[in-house]
């Protein structure tokens, strides 16, 4: 706590730095209901109160940035593991999270744009296998036709739910 502010002023500063109106935060800090609006305005005019608010906001911004950086790093680790394991859906979700965090918290885009090492990027197999090495399943839009010797026949205009488009 700042030694130049009273405990009540410090409480006002902490509540106001989080957000809210001057009157509401003055009431929360223990100022009288009837004078809270005037008291909140008066407190905001004081140099020490403004300085303390700037300190609190700076600390909150630094804490938010540090938290976002840690979460960004965890999303990057998840993206790398998912890419290595061939789970491209999870890798793309992690990358999407990183992009949103970079945008929302002002994190450096260079961290996202740096390409992964060559050995970390799986290549699509050309022998009918997916990137995990498993055989690809039949597309959902085909059915076996006994009149066609059991060969798959494409269904046209049928959505996955079985209803016509």
UniProtKB/TrEMBL annotation:
Biased composition (Acidic residues): 118-127
Disordered, as annotated region: 118-165
One record GO biological process: chromosome organization
Native organism: Ferruginivarius sediminum
Protein name (record): Terminase small subunit
Pfam families (alphabetical): Terminase_2
Lineage, top ranks: Bacteria, Pseudomonadati, Pseudomonadota, Alphaproteobacteria, Rhodospirillales
